[in-house]
Amino acid sequence: MKHTRCLVELFESYFGEPCLSLSALPLSGSDRIYYRLNSSSRTVIGTYNPIREENEAFLHFGQVFKNAGLNVPQVYASDVENNIYLQEDLGSANVYDYVQNAGSLSEKEKRIMSCYKPILRQLLQFQTIGGARIDFSKAYPVSAFDKQSVMFDLNYFKYFFLKVFEIPFNESRLEKDFNYIAEVAGIYDNDFFMYRDFQTRNIMMKDSIFYFIDFQGGRKGHLSYDVASLLFSAKTNLSIPLRESLLDYYMDLAQQTSVVSNQKEFKGAYYLFALIRVLQTLGAYGYRGIVQGKKYFSESIPLALFNVRYLLPKVDLLKKTPELLTTLNTMNNKFETLDKKDLIIQIKSFSFKRGIPYDESGHGGGFVFDCRGLPNPGRQDRYKLLTGLHGEVAEYLEEQPETHEFLEAIEKAISVNIENYTNRGFENLAINFGCTGGQHRSVYCAERTKKAIAEKFPNVKVIIKHCEITPD
């Protein structure tokens, strides 16, 4: 191909050494093609993008950010006529993979907090420095996220999600509601740099430093849009408390630097732009996943729909867009009926002597409850040869007030996750009960919890497994 030959020639001309290899990197959702070029002394990334204006935007933005000391890849050389450029190789480690590869939910949340706070700090720098120094006449395809841009995103959702999935709506009334949303969105201050696709796959990690890539779609916009893009990313799937905590963190930073004066007003804009972003994302999932048949994108639809359900009560202006509100509720109801996955809960009893059971589902684990604080039937001779499955042991434990307090607290805790997992289409949840020998207390608590789940969540499948018993 011509562009690969041109990349090799540009490499050899700029660095003055032969290119020993050129290999294509995995394709993304755009038309850009990336290559890794190697010589005996260096590795760089070569980019071919057939859209010249987008290349020019990237080169201009990158130079502004680099001059300001922000962490973006160094561009070594470019050939605008042939739509190629060479940039710094930042490796393949990105924040998305780092977070998703955490071994447990608690570790994932630790990684999120350790990454997202410095990322939000740097985002604010991109937004303010970019807003002040970038020549937005070079932005592509538009210079600002204005009413026309909002309408484009909403119609993208209409044509590639609502129509693709045959969600019924009144065309003229929905268009009227879209126009109202676009008018309101246009009221907010848009004098900042809007990254447009600010998500963790576009944030690389090299030598414990975050680097930001793929900002060529940037334009003028409101501060909250990029924050919403990051925190409402379907695949990253942040918990609601974590998402709200990080939003508060960003708002405090923005207020300290005087770019946000009223946090309540900012939050109103944030939830509005979050809804616009999520609907645009659903349009992309419909187009890429269903029309183009790329399964990776369609797999994210249930998570994006969960975000829509979360946002519905948060966006006040939906009260003035009745057709859109009805359409979104119809959409949610349809997918809850057709695409909802059954949640399977695995409950296990175990002995701490042998260790916490491994989660075979690959879901990453779940709850682990320590029953060793309860009175131990195994210390009484009459129960030594029995287990938590025997009525006599159950009666003994039920007579202890600690047992009821312990199990009531557990039932409240797991109910939160069961409801959440069910709504989000998750397929697995592990609940483990451990005691000294895995014979009495853990077995009883596992059985009691299975019964409680069956009564409260009759549509959830529960599988229970008890370990090989060693006496307490």
Q: Which key features would you list for this structure?
A:
single chain, 472 residues, alpha/beta, Phosphorylase Kinase, domain 1, Aminoglycoside 3'-phosphotransferase, Chain: A, domain 2, 3 domains, 5-stranded antiparallel sheet, 4-stranded parallel sheet, 15 helices, 13 strands
Describe the 3D structure.
The protein has helices at 2-15, 52-67, 95-100, 105-133, 147-162, 171-185, 223-231, 240-256, 263-291, 295-298, 301-311, 322-338, 391-398, 401-424, 441-456; strands spanning 21-24, 33-38, 43-48, 75-79, 84-88, 192-194, 203-206, 209-212, 219-221, 344-351, 367-370, 428-435, 461-466. By secondary structure, it is an alpha/beta fold. The protein folds into 3 domains: 2-88, Phosphorylase Kinase, domain 1 (2-Layer Sandwich), CATH 3.30.200; 95-338, Alpha-Beta Complex (Aminoglycoside 3'-phosphotransferase, Chain: A, domain 2); 344-466, no CATH class. A 5-stranded antiparallel sheet has the order 1-2-3-5-4, sandwiched between helices. Strands 11-12-10-13 form a 4-stranded parallel sheet, covered by helices on one side. Strands 6-9 form a two-stranded antiparallel sheet. Helix 9 runs antiparallel to helix 11 (301-311). It starts with a helix and ends in a 6-residue tail after the last strand.
Detail the topology: elements first, then pairings.
Blueprint: H1 2-15, E1 21-24, E2 33-38, E3 43-48, H2 52-67, E4 75-79, E5 84-88, H3 95-100, H4 105-133, H5 147-162, H6 171-185, E6 192-194, E7 203-206, E8 209-212, E9 219-221, H7 223-231, H8 240-256, H9 263-291, H10 295-298, H11 301-311, H12 322-338, E10 344-351, E11 367-370, H13 391-398, H14 401-424, E12 428-435, H15 441-456, E13 461-466
Parallel strand pairs: 10-12, 10-13, 11-12
Antiparallel strand pairs: 1-2, 2-3, 3-5, 4-5, 6-9, 7-8
Helix pairs in contact: 4-8, 5-6, 5-9, 6-12, 7-9, 9-11, 11-12, 14-15
